[in-house]
Design a protein that fits this description.
The complex is a heterodimer of chains A (151) and B (36). Chain A has 151 residues and is an alpha+beta fold. Chain A is built from seven helices and six strands; from the N terminus they run αβββααααααβββ. In chain A, strands 2-3-6-4-5 form a five-stranded antiparallel sheet. In chain A, a hairpin with a 3-residue loop joins strand 2 and strand 3. By secondary structure, chain B is of the alpha+beta class. Chain B contains one helix and two strands. The longest helix of chain B has 8 residues. At the A-B interface, strand 1 of A face strand 1, helix 1 and strand 2 of B. Strand 1 of chain A pairs parallel with strand 1 of chain B, so a sheet runs across the interface.
């Protein structure tokens, strides 16, 4: 968004998806929590089950950020930006998150986030695809949070 | 007041189908509010 406002993006045609209800919301089932790509950092931080069951992600989210970014920054945007400095993708990788993408004639579901970001600012998506949802399996039993050593 | 207005086309998708159609035509998705 900063680059857009500064006029530094080469691409000139943008479609706003902010108003699309299909890309919003957090759905909970016994097996997984599925988040729309437009889920904001604030939505994540305020969701009781995400706070309770995905503690490492909660810690990543607790890093300082200004409120406008938390309120407008989206999970989908954070993923497809494919920045190594992003808050969410490392946690989503730990929790084996799967992505679902939509395209004009269908959808592609169940591809692991770890197979989607091959390098710096690179995201494996077809040019006509849009990340629609992020699915988090609710079995985080294999995840441990270890204290960091600064030695 | 800003001294520079970026030269972009920015429209709001009417539906997910509309958005996917535009993305297929090389429009880039953007989670921002359309200009009014």
């Amino acid at each position: 968004m900063v680059l857009l406002e500064a006029g530094k993006l080469q691409h000139k045609k943008f479609v706003s998806i902010w108003g699309l209800p299909e890309l919003k919301g957090i759905e909970v089932t016994p097996e997984a929590i599925t988040l729309g790509a437009l889920t904001t950092y604030t939505d994540v931080a305020r969701h009781p089950l995400l706070r309770e069951e995905f503690r490492y992600w909660r810690r990543r989210q607790a890093r300082p950020a200004e409120s406008p970014r938390k309120n407008r920054g989206t999970l989908g945007g954070n993923i497809v930006n494919a920045s190594p400095a992003a808050d969410s993708p490392p946690a989503l990788l730990v929790y084996d998150a799967e992505l679902e993408a939509g395209f004009r004639d269908g959808a592609r579901a169940g591809f692991h986030i770890g197979h989607s970001i091959p390098g710096y600012k690179q995201m494996i998506l077809r040019p006509d695809e849009l990340v629609a949802r992020i699915r988090l399996p609710r079995d985080a039993s294999g995840v441990a949070i270890l204290p960091r050593s600064d030695a | 007041m800003r001294g520079y207005v970026p030269d972009y086309e920015l429209i709001a998708a009417r539906s997910l189908e509309h958005a996917l159609s535009l993305v297929g035509e090389e429009w880039r998705p953007f989670a921002g509010r359309e200009r009014t």
